[in-house]
Amino acid sequence: MKRAQTWSLDVMIAVGIFIVVVITFFYIINQTSKTSKTEELTTEGETIPDILVSSETGENLSTVVENIVLEEKLEELANKSYDDLKKELGIKGDFYIHFEDEYGNIIYIDDDEGIVGIGSDEVEIIE
Question: I want to staple 109 with a disulfide (CB 3.0 to 4.6 A). Which of 23, 41, 44, 115 is the partner?
Fold first, then answer.
């Protein structure tokens, strides 16, 4: 009788160790995927300004050339659909582009329409 009880205790300890190892494995996998997602979003966030700001006119999506905002290019971007703009920029995540003056005040892209920025509709700018 004692052997059966000892054997079942060994099995319970082994199952407990197995469960701890499985939980640890999935936790490590989850943490590494979060880090790579963060790095991906950071890279995309750095990519957008590189595409939109240029030192030469004539680039496809450049709206700021030598610290001057090209209003006609900005209007073109504002009139594009969000999905089309994401594809052109090569961005997978959501984004929102807005402009501020040197004091941090938001500059409207189109005062008449009340357009504050370009990007995801889920972003709400509150002044």
Answer: 115
